[in-house]
Amino acid sequence: MHKGSLFIISGPSGAGKGTIYNRVIAATDMKKSISVTTRKPRPGEVEGVHYYFRTEEQYQQMIAAGEFLETAEVHQNYYGTPKAPVFEYLENGHDVLFDIDVNGAKSIKKKYPDAVGIFLMTPTWEILEQRLRDRNTETESSLKIRLSAARRELSQYPLFDYIVFNDVLDVAVHEVLSIIAAEKRKIKNNISAIKKLLEEN
Ligand code: 5GP
Known about the structure:
Bound molecules: guanosine-5'-monophosphate
Structural class: alpha/beta
Distance between the termini: 26 Å
Largest sheet: 5 strands, parallel
Order of helices and strands: EHEEEHEEHEHEHHEHH
Strand order of the largest sheet: 2-7-1-8-9
Helix content: 40-55%
Radius of gyration: 18 Å
Number of strands: 9
């Protein structure tokens, strides 16, 4: 039985996942899961901070060595969650937050049904497209790939426990933090604390 809990933020790129993820990490003592990817670093991305950047060959070796908790192909690159740090965090009672795609969320949910899945979306498709364009990181063809992937991702909504519509960023961050706080206070997540209090009196 692990001591910490798992929380997943998923949803299409452009929905504001990265920003919200970082705001939640900064506002809590949750641990970041830093993924491994075969995608090339974007300007400003730092090895070991945003991702561990690996060649496809190195990535395949990590798969063969069983180093991933889950791995998925997203937008023609590989992304995976390294197992070891997650296990260590959980053992030490820390909660872990994942920013992973829908397939990754599915794998984690299969292994850990108690993991809490939060799907992040824009209120409209127009806003999603505009945010992707504003990022200036996509070519026209990768933009098309990401937009058509977004619909497929949203159609997997039954996998998730919550949906947050990121219209006003501060509101969305507040909602994600509220979801996490409420989950932490569920009776089933506090049995040992309750039993301890009962034993003391
Ligand atoms: P980006 O290339 O924009 O950083 O990320 C692309 C997509 O890959 C995002 O939806 C992000 O959530 C997802 N992603 C990042 N790391 C992982 C991971 O370790 N596993 C899975 N399954 N998806 C990931």
